[in-house]
Amino acid sequence: LKMSWFWLYLPLHLLMATCLCHSIKAPTSSQESFKTDLFKFYHSLILADGKEITVHLLKDIPKRYYFVLEEGRVLAPFSITVTPCDVPIEWSILVYKPPPGKATPGDHDTQEVSKPQKASSMVSTIFNYKGNSVETYMGMSSHSALYLLEFLSTERDTHITVYLTMDTTSGHLYPELPLDPRIDVIGIGPTTVTLAWKHSPSVLQHRESIQYCLLVNEKHNYKSLCAAETAIRSSGMKLPPTLALSLSPYLLEPQQVMILSNSELSIINKVSSGEVRQVCMGTRNTYTVPNLSPNTQYYFDVFIVNLLTNASAAYTGTFARTLEEPEPKVTELKDGQVIHVVLDGKKQKFYSLQYQARHKKIHFTFQLCRGQIRVHITRNGKTVASENLSGLRYFSLKGKLLDTYLVQLRSTEESNSSVKVQASPHFHKPLFPLLPESLKIKSFSKLRTCRSVTIAWLGTQEESKYCVYRKRIEEDQIWKELQSADRCSGPESRHKSEKVLCKYFYDLNLQRAVTTETIKGLEAGTLYLFDVYLFGPSGIPVRYHSKVVKTRKKC
């Protein structure tokens, strides 16, 4: 900055003036005020022009910065933007203007002493603010002046950002907000909220370097992007410096989940107070937030971010409560009827079945076909059973005539799950055959050859039909075959060439109810998938757990 000799020597002479005031006579209240102001100017840091800086504040300890307007400029404009990044702060702007006329340092010192009240009037407060909003002060000066900024946090240690510019015509560090910066809620559902906002003028001018980013949380709105990041960090998590930098997946923490689809980046932070979602959607000014919880209040903040400078501006945040989940449709269960239920894992919705008892004893049967499912059974509104299903599961319940049973099913994983359900009186002919203690298939490593495999499985005390099927598979198909197998499907879904044999057997002594089978005609060093199907009186099959065995490569 171009400054006169007066400003170059200002700190020294301000200190001299203070000392002279002490040596002449007891200070008046005006002199005390003036000396305090001089002390503030003397112990301050220079505030750089055209650069956003981060200022760290300690509780109850003020921090001061000063700047000088360039001499010789006519109606010099300037602006100061202060962004609190956490708790409310207090900040003010003081200005020191030299007395009219030119004076030597000695004359100036004498004038300070002899006319303290006039000197005191040279320092004045032109702006003060207390709060946590982003505030911008626009000023204009027709002559040289020294400005002091004072910041104070009375709640706790915190940090803020400060931006001073004396060039208000060549552009802005921060993206511009529209005249109406509100966010409109244009649609609400049980799990979605649709938002819209007016375009920023910066998008039209710098489309390639500007983007909108949305923050969703269940706590409250944030008045700036740095305030949001500070709040999330205080929950015990590290965050990328800004949403713009969050575009790099390498900055993600273990508690963060990144979802990239349709050119949108979503980052979900798992914090103690719920999820905090960050979504950047380019320059689109409408967005539907998916996968929300029903009947929950969410807060939405939109930030316009300059990707080149990482500077941002905040729209006025809004909030909305999602709708309650509509009551699920209830399907009526009839005696002996088998219902095949397919559950959508992504929606995590309950599927409800209702059964009215015509007998005191009721028998519920569940055959898990695919995935993982949790079942919850109530009788007249009171829970009588609740657990995760595995394979084939029976529930025998005793109640009263005309009791109402409600069966609720829900997938516990993101992929689709399916189950077969039957409700019947306890004495009704069973839908499924009598099952052995285990549905596992065992193979004997020592009996493996290059051309054959020996397997074994448990039977029951009831004579039943067992059919064995084999399928050649590759190494990279094992996981898919085992995970995607439909355990409710029968041999009708298999190719005829995969059938090995069918046999009947039983043993009244369960200790001896075991059968073995040697499968011949296989190829050396080859993987095979073996399945066993058990058929009961009703003809509905139960599939044993698939077994993968590899024949020996050399014999």
Description:
InterPro entries: FN3_dom, FN3_sf, Ig-like_fold, NDNF, NDNF_C, NDNF_Fn(III)_1, NDNF_N. It comes from Phainopepla nitens. The protein has 555 residues and is mostly beta strands. It folds into 4 domains: 41-98 and 122-165, Sandwich (Jelly Rolls); 173-238 and 275-326, Immunoglobulins (Immunoglobulin-like, Sandwich), CATH 2.60.40.10; 330-424, Sandwich (Jelly Rolls); 441-550, Immunoglobulin-like (Sandwich), CATH 2.60.40. Helices cover 12% and strands 42% of the residues. Strands 12, 13, 14, 15, 17, 18 and 19 form a 7-stranded antiparallel sheet that branches. Helix 2 (10-24) packs antiparallel against helix 3. The radius of gyration is 39 Å and the shape is elongated. 25% of the residues are buried. Residues 1-31, 102-121 and 238-263 have low confidence and may be disordered.
